[in-house]
From TrEMBL:
<keyword id="KW-0812">Transmembrane</keyword>
<feature type="transmembrane region" description="Helical">
    <location>
        <begin position="12"/>
        <end position="30"/>
    </location>
</feature>
<dbReference type="GO" id="GO:0006493">
    <property type="term" value="P:protein O-linked glycosylation"/>
</dbReference>
<dbReference type="GO" id="GO:0000139">
    <property type="term" value="C:Golgi membrane"/>
</dbReference>
<comment type="pathway">
    <text>Protein modification; protein glycosylation.</text>
</comment>
<keyword id="KW-1133">Transmembrane helix</keyword>
<comment type="similarity">
    <text>Belongs to the glycosyltransferase 31 family.</text>
</comment>
<keyword id="KW-0325">Glycoprotein</keyword>
<keyword id="KW-0735">Signal-anchor</keyword>
<keyword id="KW-0333">Golgi apparatus</keyword>
<keyword id="KW-0443">Lipid metabolism</keyword>
<dbReference type="Pfam" id="PF01762">
    <property type="entry name" value="Galactosyl_T"/>
</dbReference>
<protein>
    <recommendedName>
        <fullName>Hexosyltransferase</fullName>
        <ecNumber>2.4.1.-</ecNumber>
    </recommendedName>
</protein>
<dbReference type="InterPro" id="IPR002659">
    <property type="entry name" value="Glyco_trans_31"/>
</dbReference>
<dbReference type="GO" id="GO:0006629">
    <property type="term" value="P:lipid metabolic process"/>
</dbReference>
<keyword id="KW-0472">Membrane</keyword>
<keyword id="KW-0328">Glycosyltransferase</keyword>
Amino acid sequence: MQVALCRLRTHQWCFILFNIMLFHALLFGADFVEEYLLQSLPVAYTDVKVLEIREQARKLDMESRKDNISKSYLISGVDACSGQDVFLLSVIFSNPANRMRRDLIRQTWANVTHVKEYTILTMFALGKPNSETTQLEILKESESHGDIIEGSFLESSQNQTLKTIMVIQWIVTFCPSARFVLKTNEDMFVNILSLVDYLLSLRIHPEDIYMGRVIHQALPIRDPQSYTFFIPKQYEEKFYPDYCSGTAYVISQDVARKVYVVSNQVPMSLPSDVFVGICAHHAGIAPIHSSRFSGHRHIIYNRCCYKFIFTSAGTQDEELIVEWREISDGKKCSVLQTYYGLVSCKVWTYLDKLKYLKNEALSFSD
Ligand SMILES: *[C@@H]1O[C@H](CO)[C@@H](O)[C@H](O)[C@H]1NC(C)=O
Ligand SMILES: *[C@@H]1O[C@H](CO)[C@@H](O)[C@H](O)[C@H]1NC(C)=O
Ligand SMILES: *[C@@H]1O[C@H](CO)[C@@H](O)[C@H](O)[C@H]1NC(C)=O
């Protein structure tokens, strides 16, 4: 092998080098473009409306409305956050019926309550279940864990925007000390450790943080068959403004307040992540893209890759347990191992997608 390498001529070296570069360009090119070239431009702060909203958010005082607001929830969880200086609040959108999944999350990534001296708090956001028995079980679950917020609306895919508004209201009213909020779904794998590390590395008092996998120029769905259908009249623009995929995104407390202030001016029939994106846009906040968020993709597992990324979608119960155990065992990954892990994650996830596309094509031709 060594002898063979020594005998290579310059143009052969060039060829190998070119291939390595091409491989990397194909693998990481899209990420690079998204991360550095496609960042959305912030809205000009000179816009009077934007300035008004930001001023309103700054002055927002929820203290007098606390009692009233707490009555609008079935389970208000008002004490969960009070008196604590929370660095990161994770809010997990969960279906009332999925008790098992919530317990798994409690045992895995949501078991982290401190990183260094910073407090991490996890809450589950639920709608009302259809059955009385489930409701009783949820009351018991809430008593033993104290980490549930339950709205008075029916849990359904159409009511996720309502849930989002409920959560935003909860944050600004009952957890104003939380510096950052992670919104995510129960099917996600979240590496809370790498996420907190990243957030700690930001400036001392960062504002306008609205970060996730940014979706550019999405077309509104105007198909009445789709569950995200809404009346086109309510949104006339050709594209949605850039927004963060609802699978997982992080906002700072000031963004929660700004979104809350404008939330009654935006149609509720929009998909929940688009809704937040439009609210943010009105308040002059541009989403920040990070390719460490997976969006809807399931990232094929590799330990050092998972220690670096923030999220992966569609994680099965058994995977969640094993993967969390492996990444939280304290074993470090060197830069080279992380690099190799990322390449491996990329390649396998890409091949997996190809397999999926091929199956799709086959099922279409049937
Ligand atoms: C609380 O709600 C009641 C009924 O909805 C309303 O009449 C009252 O003004 C509210 N109080 C505050 C302080 O907002
Ligand atoms: C959760 O964390 C505590 C310490 O913070 C630890 O003792 C416990 O074993 C953890 N639970 C699980 C299921 O990992
Ligand atoms: C959303 O919640 C409201 C209030 O509970 C309920 O009336 C409505 O039926 C729910 N929507 C869906 C589609 O379930």
